[in-house]
């Protein structure tokens, strides 16, 4: 089973940027996509971005489109989420995941990293 470890969360002011990363044990497993999810207090976990490893096709939820960019580096098996123009509504625990395909079955989760947007 692919192992995932997130890092790079933190506290940032509104309008600021963060770039969490997710180190994977491999990119050549049976899960063909990698995604970022988030869960805010009192809300369900939601998929906000996903990338297909083979052809780099990407997906973004409307709430983050134009502000967040997902990328994957095959040289070090690391997934990134560049988050710009952050808003207080982006405050949540962010999880990376290995999926069969975007919006599909999740085979493995990371432990999560807290992102707090506040002045």
The percent of residues in helical segments reads under 10%
Overall mean pLDDT stands at 94
Biggest sheet layout? 7 strands, mixed
As a whole number of angstroms, the C-alpha radius of gyration is 13 Å
The percent range for strand residues is over 45%
Q: How many strands appear in the DSSP assignment? A: 11
SS field, number of helical segments: 0
Structural class: mainly beta
| Element string (H = helix, E = strand) | EEEEEEEEEEE
What would you note in describing this structure?
The N and C termini lie far apart (40 Å). It is built from no helices and eleven strands. The strands form two sheets. Strands 2, 4, 5, 6, 9, 10 and 11 form a seven-stranded mixed beta sheet that branches. The chain is mostly beta strands and 119 residues long. 0% of the residues lie in helices and 48% in strands.
Descriptive tags:
48% strand; mainly beta; 119 residues; globular; 4-stranded antiparallel sheet
How are the secondary structure elements laid out?
Layout: E1 4-7, E2 10-12, E3 21-24, E4 33-39, E5 46-52, E6 58-60, E7 68-73, E8 78-83, E9 92-99, E10 106-109, E11 113-117
Parallel strand pairs: 2-11
Antiparallel strand pairs: 1-3, 3-8, 4-5, 4-9, 5-6, 7-8, 9-10, 9-11
């Amino acid at each position: 089973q692919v192992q995932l470890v997130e890092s790079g969360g933190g506290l940032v002011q509104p309008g600021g940027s963060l770039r969490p990363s997710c180190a994977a044990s491999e990119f050549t497993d049976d899960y063909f996509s990698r995604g970022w999810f988030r869960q805010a207090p009192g809300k369900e976990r939601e998929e906000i971005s996903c990338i297909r490893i083979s052809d780099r096709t990407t997906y973004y939820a409307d709430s983050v489109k134009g502000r967040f960019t997902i990328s994957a580096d095959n040289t070090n098996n690391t997934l990134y989420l560049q988050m710009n123009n952050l808003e207080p509504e982006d405050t949540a625990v962010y999880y990376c995941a290995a999926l069969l395909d975007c919006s599909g079955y999740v085979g493995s989760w990371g432990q999560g990293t807290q992102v707090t947007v506040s002045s």
